[in-house]
Amino acid sequence: MELNDDYRITDLDALQTLYGQPAGASLIKEVDHVHPHYRTFIEAAPFAILATSGPEGLDASPRGDPAGFVTVADDKTLLIPDRRGNNRIDSLRNILADPRVALLFLVPGVGETLRVNGRASISTDPELLARFAMNDKPPRSVLVIHVETVFFQCSRAILRSGLWDAAKQVDRSSLPSVGRMLADISAGTFDGVTYDRELPERVRNTLY
To answer: Is 89 exposed, middle or buried (0-12, 13-18, 19+ CB in 10 A)?
Structure first.
């Protein structure tokens, strides 16, 4: 698809003219620390998206655990266990090259989301790992986030999407299975049928 350059926004003045000035509340809500109200939100969130940037590009990675899995160590520090995954370690690679990160916290049933920007480091401190053990299995590492800005996002996006509306939930069988996608992407060289058959048990056995 080609864009008509006559309508392409290319400078800040044009962008601000298009959108106007931000509302007062949208500026008041941003702080440089974890306010007690924001802490309550983080501790209620069982899911967050971690955004990172590195030489190979951008990454947005889902993070989930029981609510409160992200620990507020103090009003400038968050701790996030890095649970088992596929070992691509895209986020961790990026953090080594560029510590800047962004987090988006979601709480089921709640329209507002919470955004945190900061800088991350990767720790294998045994005390930290033990602190986040689940089923007697510690994470391989813990992300230590130095908080720079925190603010909540209004509920419009969640309301427009109907994300928490049970009537709009999608039947998983209406979409291609994981095995089907892998088989088709690999042009048939991957055994997708076996993968799909074994996946549910494998996921259950490797959550931690």
So the answer is: middle
